[in-house]
Structures
1.
Amino acid sequence: MLIHLIHRLRRRWNVDLPTLARSMTSCTELLQRHLDRQRQPSRDWRICFLYNSGMTKQADLIAYVFEGQPHLLSGELLQWMEASSRFSAFVETYRDKIRKKIRLTREPESALDLRGELEVAYCLLSDRRLAVAYEPYASAKRRGPDFAVTYRANLVFNIEVARIRVEESGVDGIDLPRKEERFLRILLYKLGQMQPGMPNLLVIHTRKELARSIDLGRLMQEIKTRVEGKDPSFYDISHYTSPAAFYKDFLHLSGILLWAASPDVQLWVNKQARPTLAVEVLRLVSSLPSSTSLPG
């Protein structure tokens, strides 16, 4: 049958047998090369594969949480992960939560608020005695602190993070009354997130110039005096209606850490808090160095 087909092709194309054989061989080779190309991945796919296979785990996480887009925080977050395997594991565990938060940071100040949260986690995880859970109360559909921190596997306390923003504090000079009023507003907003029956620490990021200008102990005493004296200017900016209502939340606050570049960190301990946070833990957290001084 094959011989019959060859003779038909030879008569139809009016070629001798050697020429026909060479033509068929060339066609066969072309067909084989085409089939080989079909079996191979495309060039673009191969380049993509080789690129991804060379990326580090940390770089893969950065690509995921920032969705491959440039962002104010991406470089610093990558540095923190490369410097700390524990923080890298933290980002991997909470990557979907972090990714969602990044999507919502449409302005530089919002991005720096998120940076403040992640910096606290990074610094806490630098001490192996501390384990950190991110927004553990969110599933209960209620406001709660940013972190639940476990010390030596048996003592659990909460940390809520805030930041005095540039537009709220000003960039020129130190307008102390204005900044102290802003501090008060942060305190009033955050008190409602303190969890009853547990120690709670409020960490407030600020510039070192402001941290140096504030006497945290004096400021807290003045706030209590305004509360107990039923100062109208206090209650005008507060949702509290009486000293009793204020102290119901205030007694859940174990302390405040005004966090700036070392050595300008200030710690205030609430001696009225129930329960209190162990002094050794307060000292440990307040001694953890800030990675850098936050702008604003």
2.
Amino acid sequence: MIYERRHTRMIADFGGLSKVMPRLAVFFMIVTLSSIALPGTNGFVGEFLILLGTFRSNVTYGVLATTGVILGAVYMLWMFQRVMFGKISNEANRILTDLTKRETAILCTIVLFIFLMGLYPGMFLKKIDASAAGYLKFVQARNAAAVSAVPPKPFGAP
């Protein structure tokens, strides 16, 4: 929506947008918080499940993934601050219009699902239970076959 008004994606071309586009700033903040996995949002559910599985599989990879999540959150908050707060750094930003009613309705729907998925993830995760169980059974069978195919080494062999 910002791109459609300014035709640029460069963070440096923005600054102080919350002064001229306060409704957009609110929605932008909600989506940013979802992207950095604030509890109660869809991003939290996804990142929590991914990190849980990663830590169970390999702690080193889990630590690396968590570091990436933290760095991503720092970047997102830095970007939000640069785009929305401070002085209006570009005169072209002074004439921007805030959200239309149509854009507000679209963003309200998106925000509804952000919180719905974050607060009631079971409603969405239930849909994949059968597929996930079938895949888990397949992986366990493949791993069991691979383990039984390897002959045991004699005691003391290198």
